[in-house]
Design brief:
- The longest helix is centred in the first third of the chain and has 27 residues.
- A hairpin with a 2-residue loop joins strand 3 and strand 4.
- Helix 1 runs parallel beside helix 5, helix 2 runs antiparallel to helix 5 and helix 4 packs antiparallel against helix 5.
- This protein has seven helices and four strands, in the order ααααααββββα.
- 55% of the residues lie in helices and 12% in strands.
- The N and C termini lie far apart (54 Å).
- The protein has a four-stranded antiparallel sheet with strand order 1-2-3-4.
């Protein structure tokens, strides 16, 4: 994998981990956004590498006309914004002309940024032990991955675990640079990426309502 893509994924994973854990302050939320912005910067670098690889000749010594003709015939990486919040669908579409992978990663960063922005600030002490809901969800996904011998599962319905909430997950198995295997999972509520702690809080509220009824 391109080193820029590897580093972008590391920063994306850190932002997602913070999102799932919940933000205790505005600064923590900003830090997650900063990681996503840095990830996007790395994706821009990765895309530039893809473009430059198509150029036949020495980019350092190419004359202006040759270089202009090349850029006109392909996708100019400098057309991409420098900041994630300026990225629009047209930028992703242009990127997709040369790389589906990078385009998908950019789209995912936008989706994650929206989830981070919408996440509440919860000034409470995080639980030391994982929630029963989290344990059940992770065990279910792990068992499905192993049973199907798959690396990626999409739109796995988890409503039965979260008291009937319209929850689903996309998950895939990953081996990091240290050789450790784990699942990278993204949770969705009502079709929108949502922090796991927010989903758990909603499920717990439903459970309390059922007991009180």
């Amino acid at each position: 994998m391109n080193i820029h893509l590897e580093q972008a994924q590391i920063r994306t994973d850190k932002a997602l981990a913070a999102l799932d854990a919940g933000f205790r302050s505005k600064s923590a939320q900003k830090d997650a956004n900063d990681k996503l912005n840095r990830a996007f910067d790395l994706l821009r670098n990765a895309f530039s590498t893809v473009v430059w690889a198509l150029f036949e000749g020495d980019r350092e010594t190419a004359d202006h006309e040759t270089w202009t003709a090349f850029i006109t015939s392909t996708v100019d990486p400098y057309d991409l914004p420098f900041d994630l919040h300026h990225v629009r669908d047209r930028h992703i579409a242009k990127t997709r002309e040369l790389s589906d992978d990078i385009a998908n990663r950019m789209a995912f960063l936008l989706e994650t940024r929206a989830a981070v922005k919408a996440a509440p600030i919860e000034k409470v002490t995080p639980k030391k032990q994982p929630s029963e809901y989290q344990v059940k969800a992770e065990m279910t996904l792990k068992e499905l991955i192993e049973k199907r011998k798959a690396q990626y599962l999409e739109a796995i319905e988890l409503g039965r675990i979260f008291n009937g909430l319209p929850v689903y997950a996309n998950t895939h198995s990953v081996i990091n640079q240290h050789g450790t295997w784990f699942l990278r999972t993204y949770y969705y509520l009502n079709g929108k990426m949502t922090p796991l702690n927010v989903i758990i809080a909603a499920a717990e509220a439903l459970e309390r309502e059922k007991k009180a009824a």
